């Protein structure tokens, strides 16, 4: 029983880890993209459609990531190319992605696919309780590998230093000769690819069908996770498991017939998100960790 519950929590946390890690990289470069929800939905519908067409969930995974990247490119065109307000552009992207994914996915409603297979790691998967952490799918293992790689690149490499410099002070980075817009473009596209993978995980693993709005607010939780993690990659994993556990708790409560209004149980993940963010803000714990030029428009000069 506990093993099944832990497994469900881990699976639920995977799309949060993927989406939040991508958004963390974008924000480290100084770009605030609130369109995560829209990019995830585009990734979900593309992944489901590709998996249904080609009969291969791995093709669907790639299609989902690329779809998220293309959607992020729309954001980049306006926010970076035309220097529009990043907050307004991100919100518009979410609305755009929600509507377009619903339109594209309309013919896919009612159909089902075969999702990603479980990959068990010998010996480790047979351990009591914690063995379920080694009975996951390819994308679950990939998410941890990506977090490790992002953490290393941000803290141990020159490329990571340049990325962080553009978020801390884009004028200084530009004065040193770095192409701020190019760095931010790459960060935004990476964030879009990750959000697309996060969306792809929903039909490829969690629910093997397409439903309009199936992300159910996970994109907004991923945005909150970046702040919760204080822009540190490994903290994203901890936060994702925490919020994944809260999500499963409300589902388990409804299934067990807890004497609590189902509407209250459904709002638990989002209520927890608000409480955590308010608590962190009151302590001021993230003020010194947020990129100083996050959300600021960069106007290149010669």
Query: What percent of residues are in strands?
Result: under 5%
- Derived structural class: mainly alpha
**Unreliable segments of 5+ consecutive residues:** none
So, the CATH homologous superfamily?
Answer: ABC transporter involved in vitamin B12 uptake, BtuC
Number of domains: 1
Q: So what's the overall shape?
A: globular
Percent of residues in helices:
55-70%
Q: In this structure, how is the largest beta sheet organized?
A: 2 strands, antiparallel
Q: First CA to last CA: what distance? A: 63 Å
| Rg (CA only) | 19 Å
The tally of helices reads: 12
CATH overall fold name: ABC transporter involved in vitamin B12 uptake, BtuC
Order of strands side by side in the largest beta sheet?
A: 1-2
Please count the beta strands (DSSP E, at least 2 residues each).
2
- Which class in CATH terms? Mainly Alpha
CATH architecture: Orthogonal Bundle
Q: Report the order of strands and helices.
A: HHHHEEHHHHHHHH
What is the averaged pLDDT score?
88
Topology:
Layout lengths: L1 H27 L7 H19 L2 H25 L4 H20 L12 E3 L14 E3 H19 L1 H11 L1 H6 L4 H27 L11 H11 L4 H23 L6 H5 L1 H16 L19
Antiparallel strand pairs: 1-2
Helix pairs in contact: 1-5, 1-8, 1-9, 1-10, 2-3, 2-4, 2-8, 2-9, 3-4, 3-8, 5-6, 9-10, 9-12, 10-12
């Amino acid at each position: 029983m506990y093993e099944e519950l832990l497994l469900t929590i881990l699976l639920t946390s995977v799309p949060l880890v993927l989406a939040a890690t991508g958004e963390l990289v974008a924000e480290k470069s100084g770009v605030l993209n609130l369109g995560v929800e829209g990019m995830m939905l585009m990734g979900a519908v593309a992944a489901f459609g590709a998996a249904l067409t080609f009969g291969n969930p791995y093709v669907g995974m790639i299609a989902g990531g690329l779809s998220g990247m293309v959607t992020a490119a729309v954001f980049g065109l306006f926010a970076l190319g035309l220097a529009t307000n990043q907050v307004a552009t991100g919100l518009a992207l979410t609305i755009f992605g929600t509507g377009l994914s619903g339109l594209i996915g309309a013919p896919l409603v009612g159909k089902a696919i075969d999702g990603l297979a479980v990959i068990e790691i010998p010996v480790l998967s047979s351990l009591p309780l914690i063995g379920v952490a080694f009975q996951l799918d390819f994308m679950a293992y990939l998410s941890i590998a990506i977090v490790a790689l992002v953490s290393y690149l941000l803290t141990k490499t020159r490329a990571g230093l340049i990325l962080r410099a553009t978020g801390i002070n884009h004028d200084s980075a530009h004065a040193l000769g770095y192409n701020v817009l190019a760095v931010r473009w790459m960060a935004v596209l990476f964030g879009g690819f990750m959000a697309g993978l996060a969306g792809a995980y929903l039909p490829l693993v969690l629910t093997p069908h397409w439903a309009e709005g199936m992300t159910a607010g996970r994109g907004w939780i991923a945005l909150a996770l970046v702040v919760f993690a204080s822009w540190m990659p490994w903290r994203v994993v901890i936060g994702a498991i925490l919020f994944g556990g809260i999500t499963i708790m409300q589902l388990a409560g409804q299934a067990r017939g807890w004497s609590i209004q189902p509407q209250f149980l459904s709002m638990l993940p989002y209520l927890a998100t608000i409480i955590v963010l308010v608590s962190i803000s009151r302590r001021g714990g993230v003020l010194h960790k947020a990129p100083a030029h996050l959300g600021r428009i960069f106007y290149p000069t010669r």
